[in-house]
């Protein structure tokens, strides 16, 4: 597939695709999902070492501005498309703005430490330590740590 065709199919600019191929781009997780779909593969196959077992990936896939802010893909299990298990940490004041997943995708979050502020277009939800939430991730949303200490949560993404 040409860069132009991939850009058209994924909705990602050709310039971003060229930068990605050169290893010079910082792409969002949602954009990686769209690239995988355009390439008729899954997010996991796109970002994972094919020689490594998917049940235990343990790779950092996103880093925030603060060293303590990161998202680690822990592992995956088979589903219609994918099921992904993530361990997230956000430093105080850190925000991660997600792009909508394809229709049919959902997230389950369990907060380990701190309070997660989960922002949607129509509402804001606070998820305290030792509590959880489940929502349709085919919408705009953001994770925010409004607290004074590190926020840690486990996130499962499934389709």
TrEMBL record:
SUPFAM superfamilies: lambda repressor-like DNA-binding domains (SSF47413), RmlC-like cupins (SSF51182)
Keyword Disulfide bond: no
Name this protein carries in UniProt: HTH cro/C1-type domain-containing protein
GO MF terms, alphabetically ordered: DNA binding; DNA-binding transcription factor activity
Record keyword Nucleotide-binding present: no
UniProt-listed PANTHER family: HTH-TYPE TRANSCRIPTIONAL REGULATOR, HTH-TYPE TRANSCRIPTIONAL REGULATOR SUTR
Species whose genome carries this gene: Acetobacter orleanensis
Residue ranges of every copy of the HTH cro/C1-type domain listed in the record: 1-46
